Amino acid sequence: MHSFAPEIMLITILSLVIFSDALANKIKIPSVFLLLIGSYLIYTYFKAAVPIDMAAHFDTIIIFCIPLIFMGDALHLGFSDIKKHGWSIFYLAVIAVALSITVGASLYYLDVFEGLTLGAYVSLFAINMATDAVSVQSVLSHFKGISHDIKVLIEGESLGNDATAVIAFFFIGLPWMMSGQIDALHATTEALRVFAVSIGMGLVIGYVFYMLMKLFSDRRGELFAFVIEGYAAYVLGEEMHVSGILTLITAIIATKAWIDMDIMVLEETEEKKRKSFMRTLRMSSVVATTRERLEYIYEMAKEFGYIAAVMIFFVLAEMVDFKTLWHYRMEILIMFAVTTLIRALSMAKFAFFGKTIDSIKPVGFEGWFILTFSGMKGALSIILVHMIPADYEYKVLFEAVTTGVVILSIFVYGTTLWAYFTFFKKEEETKLFVH
């Protein structure tokens, strides 16, 4: 007798995506709400629709899903956006996350979570400061009135934030938590090495695939090339014991940036076209793709991301135990409140203090509000908490707190933004940046 588990699983995932999108468009709410609720209901009450043991095959699911989750957002970042907002994205993705984890870990001295070591606090906040690209995109895509600049900051942060959180967790927090001690100098050096090597590998992989894409000119081939690039970069990064996620993000963004530069060159007037060494090195006269095909590739990559997110949500559904969540309700609420406050304070740099650094432009109160509540947690937080060894005595606490924060962030943040854009902000898209 044949097993049709993979086919049934695919039918379930695609059906959930289709009906969630259709219902979300009908009742005007973010589809991620329905995806999360639907995943739980199906996993809990319709086991036949999920015939694969998601928890038992979690490692395989991670490797399959991670490139798809990050690829869409990485493809959406344009070269001109990176050039314009590079320092702002760096602040959001690296400095703000590092400071947030540090501030969160300082709660150790207040003994907020009884029994946890300082290394455990670092791990817990690294896990719960990671935002989710798919959840954020699902919520914000339904709203008008968000300027392009704000969207760039949100997308850039959701990518870089995750890479920083992963490095902080795997190379600082987890070793510290499991061993009970850490060499601060070695940990810092190791984190910097991982950053540098991951970015270097990503640039090389990005250039290789950028040049390969000049050999063909159809959108299906280009889409598959990006998919292959994402998986190859992630696997190579992990095999080299650096950050596969940062390698993946760098590779996709680099390929996309070089393609954008080629398109910009061809769109220039003839008198502005000049050959340079870098343009010659890129063979800029041979374009890897077009803007129209890039839009198709981005849309398809976004759909792949939704499919991957649903698979992760099924794993989350397996983790949901209401008795355990209720038992740790105070810890969940404290973590949610603290991470929200930390995020609000870190985003205040853009709202009120941006003028102190010319390269980081202020966005005003409205921009601060949107940035603060666009910090939904999701797939990556679930992935990281599953990476904690099973014999760690506080793993149940970590899983309960993370599960609770993911659910609260999606529904509370998402509902806050939905209510604001539905009932308070009626005008069309406006420029949020204050010059």
From TrEMBL:
According to its record, what are the GO cellular component terms? plasma membrane
Where exactly are the transmembrane stretches of this chain? 6-24, 31-50, 56-77, 89-110, 116-140, 161-179, 191-210, 303-320, 332-353, 365-388, 400-421
Name the InterPro entries on file: Cation/H_exchanger_CPA1 (IPR018422), Cation/H_exchanger_TM (IPR006153)
Membrane topology summary: Multi-pass membrane protein
According to the entry, every stretch annotated as the Cation/H+ exchanger transmembrane domain falls at: 15-417
Q: Where in the cell is it found?
A: Cell membrane
- PANTHER family for this protein: SODIUM/HYDROGEN EXCHANGER (PTHR10110), SODIUM_HYDROGEN EXCHANGER 7 (PTHR10110:SF86)
Q: By what name is this protein known? A: Peptidase
The scientific name of the source species is Sulfurovum lithotrophicum
State the organism's lineage.
Bacteria, Pseudomonadati, Campylobacterota, Epsilonproteobacteria, Campylobacterales
